[in-house]
Amino acid sequence: MSDYDYDLFVIGAGSGGVRASRVAAAHGAKVAVAEEYRVGGTCVIRGCVPKKLLVYGAHFAEDIKDARQFGWNVPDCAFDWPRLRDNVLREVDRIEGLYGETLGNQKVEIIRERAVVTGPHSVKLASGKEITAKTLLIATGGWPVVPDVPGAEHGITSNEVFHLEALPKRIVIAGGGYIANEFAGIFHQFGSHVTLVNRSETILRGYDEQIRDRLLQISMTKGIQFRFNAPFEKIEKQEDGSLLVHLGDNGPPIECDAVLFATGRRPNLDGLGLETAQVELTEKGAIKVDDENRTSCASIYAVGDVTDRIQLTPVAIREGQAFADTVFGNKPTKVDYSCVPSAVFSHPPLAGVGMIEAEARNKLGSIKVYSSDFRPMKNVLAGRNERALYKMICDAATDRVVGVHMIGPDAAEILQVAAVAVKAGLTKAQFDATVALHPTMAEELVLMK
Q1: How do residues 354-380 score in pLDDT, each as one tens digit?
Q2: CATH architecture entry for 348-446
Q3: Can you give the pTM of this predicted structure?
């Protein structure tokens, strides 16, 4: 008999925690997972899934207009925000139920209350119950950062945006990262007047410069407004319920109906009791782990956005799998963080894998850059001037493709296959030797000059 209540106790039932729980249980471990909100975590409940459904809904605005050029007699259509919102939330409920069923099928016990660490092998539930486990896993994810400015309480974050009672006619979005740009595109297509306010002069830092500049150009052409180098000073709520956003010396205040903070995310560790087990944190407030996901406390591990690695759902899932296989499956596994693809579901979307051009020049010295700047066939007939841009970065010494970056319709869908090629270390010559699939946008990957 074990000296502990469980072999593994997981705090947080998000993507990483769920994968770790069910895999560990499949390896024969007795597992419990505590979740104080809803099973599924950020991705399922208030992130990737509902946001992508809103992206799909937003695309219909342009699709309906384009359809007229393709012979469809489409009348003017009105958008019904409550209907989409409620349909999306119902889908979230359905997926949450499936996550719970998956855990149940693996005999994982779900404890629907908050748990905090009280020592290397113990946790305390909100109900007061003390539980012991041989191994603890922290998988509590991230939490939106809200700027410390007067009136910040009048704004919302990506946690609340899916529950808006009404579609704001005017919205200010604070931030320049992927969440800010995705919601800028979503709300613009739904008919809101969108102003994106960024404290620096760069959007999507870390993405290829030409690709992000193309998104900025297209977004401005569509009518999204940008205010750069504009830190928030304060937000005032006016008598009619509208908001007035003050940006210091950077132009006049902006009047709007909603403010969405998309100013980054931080590890969700407040009040978790990690200090009771001497779990060390990084300077950025993330849990410090080794390449086996172990913290400074030998019995406690961490995966996902609570660590200072790559904050992406598929990465958290891989970390959860690697943890469970290593600790409970006798299959030592380490996650390879090289060549992780990423996408921004903006309008149009962009995606990339491997090195961007500036990074490749710094690391490799001599590189070759190939590109294709074209107008998608669908856009031509629709009378839409929007152009796609694909880039391929190669090591000049070996011809190996070290990066692929693109912006255009279905960029993320196309990039996934290109990511396999970059990961495999294929050369530009091998791309060139592949027959193009015509007529597609993807064929530009093997036609770049």
Answers
A1: 999 999 999 999 999 999 999 999 999
A2: 2-Layer Sandwich (3.30)
A3: 0.95
